[in-house]
């Protein structure tokens, strides 16, 4: 399937907000699932889609926190699910399929970032790869019938510019034989998000299912809970006094700016008929070579390699026991 990893003419950009993306759109009758949809950019994504008329379902690991966060917004449903627990993923998907509703948008926004010590999920898999990638892979596979029934669905995976920090180590993805490094692990999981979108789009196109991955921008939310003030300063996200920095290539976006690219990927008519693309700043990102080391825009080759996407797909099916088209 041909890919067009080049920017489109657009009036949107890095400062565009999610509200600006959705302005004038009517999503009545559309159904969306947003993982992580009760915190940070996931919550903003849920809010904006619901305000445009969509029914939004938010699976939550911490129901009480989700109930409080989602209480002000109409059109949002809540259900229980933990991406680190495969049994709960299957249960959530089965309950959704039992509702007989099509699924027009699956937005995989939940993630963890850089836990300092090696952690594992219920299967014994390294936590960042397990939660950021494998849990979402299993969820999409289980929800495949609802995505296919939509007559045109989009699956959106929130990756990160952090994909430049690491390729997928197919020989030891769970740090069983190599020392754990929190940033290499995070980079591996974010590369996996991009390869998952590429693999899903390749397999889903004939079913009307298109997939995208994206960098939302640097947004200071609860995902940074493991990082110290010194680390946030070194990353250019805050200054010495702890104030969020907005300037420069590493400057932070607001939450509503950070959610804009997710909403654009899920709803924009500009990318109708396209898929398998990595996006940022409400546009398709430029492809850059693997020797580019600066902290800047673009997607690295190892995150857009079809052979690697196919290899990851096969690995993910084995690790989760889940397969699409089933």
Account of the 3D structure:
The protein folds into two domains: 18-217 and 254-320, Rossmann fold (3-Layer(aba) Sandwich), CATH 3.40.50; 220-252, no CATH class. It is built from eleven helices and eight strands. It has helices spanning 18-22, 40-51, 63-70, 86-98, 127-142, 144-149, 182-204, 229-234, 255-258, 260-267, 306-320; strands at residues 31-35, 55-60, 76-80, 105-108, 153-158, 209-215, 277-280, 283-284. The chain has an eight-stranded mixed beta sheet, with helices on both faces. The two termini are 22 Å apart.
The radius of gyration computed from the alpha-carbon positions, rounded to a whole number of angstroms, is 18 Å
Q: What portion of residues is helical? A: 25-40%
Number of strands: 8
Determine the strand fraction and express it as a percent band.
5-15%
Major sheet attributes: 8 strands, mixed
Report the top-level CATH class of the largest domain: Alpha Beta
The average pLDDT is: 91
CATH homolog superfamily of the largest domain: NAD(P)-binding Rossmann-like Domain
Provide the CATH architecture of the largest domain.
Answer: 3-Layer(aba) Sandwich
Write down the secondary-structure element order: HEHEHEHEHHEHEHHHEEH
- Given as residue ranges, the uncertain stretches (5+ residues, pLDDT < 50) are none
């Amino acid at each position: 399937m041909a890919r067009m990893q080049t920017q489109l003419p657009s009036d949107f950009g890095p400062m565009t907000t999610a509200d600006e993306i959705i302005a004038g759109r009517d999503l009545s009758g559309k159904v969306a699932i947003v993982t992580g949809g009760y915190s940070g950019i996931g919550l903003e994504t849920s809010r904006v889609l619901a305000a445009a008329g969509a029914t939004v379902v938010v699976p939550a690991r911490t129901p009480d926190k989700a109930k409080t966060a989602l209480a002000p917004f109409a059109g949002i449903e809540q259900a229980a699910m933990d991406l680190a627990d495969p049994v709960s993923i299957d249960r959530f998907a089965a309950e959704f399929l039992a509702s007989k509703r099509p699924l027009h948008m699956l937005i995989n926004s939940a993630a963890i970032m850089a836990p300092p010590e090696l952690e594992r999920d219920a299967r014994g898999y390294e936590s960042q790869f397990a939660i950021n990638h494998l849990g979402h892979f299993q969820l999409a596979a289980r929800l495949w019938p609802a995505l296919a029934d939509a007559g045109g669905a989009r699956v959106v995976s929130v990756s990160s510019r952090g994909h430049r920090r690491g390729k997928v180590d197919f020989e030891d993805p769970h740090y069983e034989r190599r020392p754990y490094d929190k940033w290499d692990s995070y980079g591996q999981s974010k590369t996996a998000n991009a390869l998952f979108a590429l693999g899903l789009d390749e397999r889903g196109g004939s079913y009307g299912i298109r997939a995208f991955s994206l960098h939302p921008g640097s947004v200071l939310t609860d995902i940074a809970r493991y990082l110290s003030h010194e680390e946030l300063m070194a990353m250019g996200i805050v200054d010495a006094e702890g104030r969020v920095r907005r300037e420069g290539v590493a400057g932070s976006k607001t939450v509503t700016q950070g959610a804009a690219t997710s909403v654009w990927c899920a709803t924009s008519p500009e990318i109708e008929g396209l898929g398998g693309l990595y996006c940022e700043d409400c546009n398709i990102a430029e492809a850059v070579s693997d020797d580019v080391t600066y902290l800047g825009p673009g997607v690295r080759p190892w995150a857009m390699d079809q052979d690697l996407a196919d290899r990851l797909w096969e690995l993910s099916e084995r690790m989760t026991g889940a397969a699409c088209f089933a």
